[in-house]
Amino acid sequence: MTMAVLEAKVYIVGAGPGDPELITLKGSRILRSADLVLYADSLVSEELVRSAKAGAEVLQSSGMDLEQQVEVMASYVRAGLSVARVHTGDPSMYGAILEQMSLLKLLGISCEIIPGVSSVFASAAALGAELTVPGLTQTVILTRAEGRTPVPDREQLRLLASHHCTVALFLSASLAGHATAEFLAAGWNPDTPVAVVKRATWPDQQILHTTVQNLEPDLHEAGITMHAMILAGWALDPQLIDGGGHRSKLYDKKFTHGCREGVAEAVIGSVDNTAVSEAGQAAPPQEAADGV
Questions:
Q1: Homologous superfamily (CATH) for 10-117
Q2: Which GO terms label this protein's molecular function in UniProt (predicted)?
Q3: CB-side neighbour CA atoms (13 Å) of 31
Q4: How many CB atoms lie within 10 A of CB 257?
Q5: How far apart are alpha carbons 81 and 129 in whole angstroms?
Q6: H-helix or E-strand containing 113?
Q7: CB–CB of 81/56 below 8 Å?
C-alpha cells in the first residue's frame, strides 16, 4: 500500500476505544505514514500500532513526562518529519492534549487533531443502549467524579445530576462510593439503572448492570477499578427495548420535516393500507437530518 506524504507537524490521532477497526480512515492513514508514532501504550491496541510503516520510530508515552514527550515530537518536526501522537478514544475528552499543544506552539510546532470514537459511545454500543430516549431524557452530561483532579464547585456531580438526565462518568470507577453519594444528594432514586463497561470493544470487555445504590459494592465484587465507563440514568434500563413506548418524532406519521409531509390522524388508517410501492413492498422511510 502506498504511504501518504504527511506534512512535518504533529498529528494528534484518536485511536478509538480499543478495537483496532474503530480508528477512522484518516487516523489510520496518518498512523501508517508517520515517521514517529508516540502512543499511549496502556490504552492503545498494540495491533493498531503495528500498522506503522517500516522504518518509523514507535515510542511508548507511559514512561515519559510532558516535557519529554514534547521534546521528542519537536525534534522530529524540526527535522522535517511527521509525528502521530496517538491517544485512546477521542483526544478532546480527558486527553491532556491542550498542554501538549501549548508547549508545541511555543516551539513553533503546528498540530492537527484527528477525532476518534469516544469510549462513552463505544460503551453505549456495547450495551445496545440509546443515551437520549424520547420522552425520557434528551440530555447527556459527560463528566467525572472528583478525585485527585479537582472539579470546579459549579460542576460538582450533585449539581449536574440534579437535571436527572443521562450521566456518563469518565475516570471514576475507583470513586463509585462518592458518585453514589452525589447522585442520592441530587434526589436520584436509589434504584436508578447504572451500566458499567470496562475496556469497551477490547476482547476482554466486561459489562455490569447495577443501580445507583449498588454501584460501589457491585464494582468491588466484579473487581473493576479502572478503564471503565459508568453510564447512569433511566435510559440505561435494559428493559426499555422491550417496551416500545418511547418513540421519536422523526418517524411519526403525523410529523412533517424536510423530507416528508406528515399525515393527518384521520387518514392514517387509509395510508397504512396503501403505503406500498408498485413492487408490492413497503416503501423505505426517508432519513432526515433533523427533527428528532
A1: Tetrapyrrole methylase, N-terminal domain (3.40.1010.10)
A2: precorrin-4 C11-methyltransferase activity
A3: 27
A4: 17
A5: 43
A6: strand 111-114
A7: no
The contacts of residue 211 (CB under 8 Å, 6+ apart) are 190, 191, 192, 193, 194
Set of cell numbers at residue 147: 478525585
Residue of 227, 166, 237, 177 lying closest to 197 (CA atoms):
227
Q: Are strands 228-232 and 166-170 parallel, antiparallel or unpaired?
A: antiparallel
DSSP state at residue 1: -
The position carrying cell 491496541 is 45
CA 281 to chain centre: 37
- Provide CATH code, domain 120-241: 3.30.950.10
Q: Report residue 116 as a C-alpha cell.
A: 476518534
Nearest 5°: phi and psi at 267?
-110, 5
Residue 139, C-alpha cell as written in the block: 440530555
Which amino acid is present at 260?
A: R
How many CB atoms are located within 10 Å of the residue 289 CB?
8
pLDDT tens string, the chain, 292 residues long: the values are 456 789 999 999 999 999 999 999 999 999 999 999 999 998 999 999 999 999 999 999 999 999 999 999 999 999 999 999 999 999 999 999 999 999 999 999 999 999 999 999 999 999 999 999 998 999 999 999 999 889 999 999 999 999 999 999 999 999 999 999 999 999 999 999 999 999 999 999 999 999 999 999 999 999 999 999 999 999 999 998 776 666 665 666 666 666 667 777 655 555 455 443 443 433 344 444 444 4
C-alpha cell at 253: 406519521
CA separation (Å) from 287 to 4, 74, 253, 258, 275? 35, 46, 13, 10, 17
Q: What is the pLDDT of residue 34?
A: 98
Where does 133-216 show beta strands of DSSP type E?
140-144, 166-170, 193-198, 206-211
Q: Which residue has the cell 464547585?
A: 153
